[in-house]
Structure formats: C-alpha cells, structure tokens
Design a protein that fits this description.
Elements (H helix, E strand, L loop, with lengths): L31 H10 L8 H8 L3 H14 L2 E6 L4 E5 L1 H9 L1 H4 L2
Antiparallel strand pairs: 1-2
Helix pairs in contact: 2-3
Length: about 110
C-alpha cells in the first residue's frame, strides 16, 4: 500500500492570548459634580442598583453602596429587594408621577 497523502499531520492549535481589559479608573470620592448628577439622574432611573451607578456615574462600588444608603435615608429612593449580595431600589412614585402625567399637557 502507498503511504498516505503528504502533509498528513495536523498542525497544533495556537492558543490566542485573549483579550486584555483595561483596569477601570472609577472615582473613589464623590465630588460635587458627580453628586449633583447623582441627585438629578437617580430620579429618572427605573431600576437602581450598585451596578447601574457604577456603570453610569463611573464611581467605585463601595461609594455607590454608600450613596444608595444615603438616598434611601433621605427618602429619595425606596428599597424594593434587599438581599445579602444585591439590593434593588426604585425611585419613589411621588417623584415619578408628575413626569408620567405631564401636568402641563392636561391643562389644555
């Protein structure tokens, strides 16, 4: 019998190095501009978690947890689900209702 076709050995798979993700440089101190943005924008969020604040405001996770605790203590948001690893908050209905109803359009 004749030998198999030339180049019979399969080449070894070369492993990729993988993607390297840059380290996030999130703020660890809540400055005035970030605090103002937090106070204004948090009322428009439908779902508020630590992860949403970290992603949108570019702040540290521990800082986001503390900010959520302060907002809850001030009565601006309400805890919907409290778990040891995840807390979910929602803006208070009294803050959202005027925007939903848009009272300016009702007077016409």
């Amino acid at each position: 019998m004749a030998p198999a076709a030339t180049g019979g050995k399969k080449q070894k798979k070369k492993w990729s190095k993988g993607k390297v993700k840059d380290k996030a440089q999130h703020a660890v101190v809540l400055d005035k501009a970030t605090n103002d943005k937090l106070q204004k924008d948090v009322q428009s969020y439908r779902l508020i978690t630590v992860a949403t604040l970290v992603d949108r405001l570019k702040i540290n996770g521990s800082l986001a947890r503390q900010a959520l605790n302060d907002l809850e203590a001030n009565g601006q948001i309400k805890k919907v689900v409290g778990h040891s690893s995840l807390s979910i908050y929602s803006a208070l209905l009294s803050n959202i209702l005027p925007r939903i109803l848009n009272t300016d359009n009702l007077s016409q």
